[in-house]
Amino acid sequence: MKNLADKSFQTRAVHAGERVPPAEYRPVATPIWPTVGYLYESMDDLDAVFARTKPGQVYLRYSNPTVEAFENAVANLELAEAAQAYSSGMAAIHAALLGSGLKAGTCIVAALDVYGATFSLLRSLLSSLGVNVRMVDVTNLEEVQAAVQESEPSCLIVESISNPLLKVANIPELALIAHRQGAALLVDNTFASPWLSNPLTYGANYVMHSATKYISGHGDVLAGVVATSQENKNRLFELNKLVGSVLGPYEAWLALRGLKTLPLRMKQQCDNAMKVAEWLTTHPRVKTVNYPGLAAHPQHLLAQRLFQNKGYGGVLSFEIDGADQATIYRFMEALTICLPATTLGDIYSLVLHPATSSHRSLTTEERARVGIPDGLVRLSAGIESADDILADLEQALAKI
Questions:
Q1: pLDDT, tens digit, for every residue of 85-134?
Q2: Of 167, 213, 233, 367, which one is the catalytic site residue?
């Protein structure tokens, strides 16, 4: 849709990616195009589309109109030139790493407390392929700068809000550090979503999302996406033709449909998370609460500046004092509104035990180094009544 550049985020979320010209008539909502192949009257036209000198479709592994509509919508919300969609968030992260130039013999500097699957991708798969991986405390800019200067990495990868300890990355400063050494900055923006942060505007080169989470928002689709420059998009497009981490048209349609309510959902989820975090700080069974919205959070002022007072995200984590794995399991089983599920960003409130789910692939020593104790619980606030969420947590805590 034309003339969206000067419109609000809410308006762009509703209309971006839709009603793409040049058809004389267009559907109000993007349809699902499930076909694998396409026909052209002229073989010269088909050849031009293959060469990408003419817009069009040739094969589902290359592109698809429904997928392109989703990509255009995400690019619009992330203030990016382009976006490339994937079959999962991990596929998006892997592709962005490859697109940034990572290969055998190169180095990557990464935040220590990244998502468990990202940690394993770096430390297990990529390390086995000859990539040197160096993990750092991303909140310690001196440590990050020293690591980047010493290792001269191809990229620096961080999370805008880390999973599950809710550390906030100083993306403007990290971009300066990376770019001084010729490295690309990759930011997983899943927890913040485009509603809270647009890392490309702060100097990031690639912004990744598990679109399964806040972008889709309803727990019914697996998807990933990378927002970046057109030049980088071209590189990712060619890579994905070979790797085949393709987002299907049905999934793209669900993700596009979910994206339209992102600002409405995020407002409620941020509000609910704030109320839950504040309440948990007063509970006698809770040892610590990790949430950027709390004044005691080490990066509270940074989050306030970067997120421009829109909120602090819908996810928080807290440690139940003295709880072991069995105690946490009993707590989760006692919940009735908050659902024990291995995901986040849904309309439902969800709880997870990082030590045995999202970060299960880490050893006990690695979890201790990252700072993930057995008593840690991650909570993704849904859009239910905050009072009902609090009552559910209170009765479950009382039972342990």
A1: 999 999 999 999 999 999 999 999 999 989 989 999 998 999 999 999 99
A2: 213
Q: Are residues 266 and 240 in the same domain?
A: no
One domain, residues 187 and 241: yes
| Interval 330-341 mean pLDDT | 96
Marked catalytic residue, from 61, 235, 285, 310: 61
pLDDT of residue 5: 80
Domain, as residue range, for 25: 9-259
Residue 177 in any domain: the answer is yes
pTM of the model: 0.94
Catalytic annotation present for 257: no
Annotated catalytic, 137?
A: no
Mean pLDDT of 74-95: 98
Burial 209-243, CB ≥16 within 10 A → b, else e: bbbbbbbbbbbebbbbbbbbeeebbebbbebbeeb
For range 366-379, the mean pLDDT:
89
Cis peptide before 172 (omega within 30 of 0): no
Domain containing residue 83: CATH number: 3.40.640.10
Residues 110 and 155 grouped into a single domain: yes
Pairing of strands 132-136, 315-320: unpaired
The Cα 58–Cα 38 span in angstroms is 5
Catalytic residue among 12, 86, 113, 115: 115
Task: Say whether 113 is catalytic.
Answer: no
* 330 has catalytic annotation: no
Select which of 12, 86, 188, 346 is catalytic. Answer: 188
Task: Check whether residue 162 and residue 298 sit in a common domain.
Answer: no
Q: What Rg do the C-alpha atoms of the chain give, in angstroms?
A: 21
Q: Are residues 375 and 244 in the same domain?
A: no
Checking if the pLDDT of 2 tops 80, the result is: no
Any idea what the CATH number is for the domain that residue 357 is in?
3.90.1150.10
As for how many domains the chain has, the answer is 2
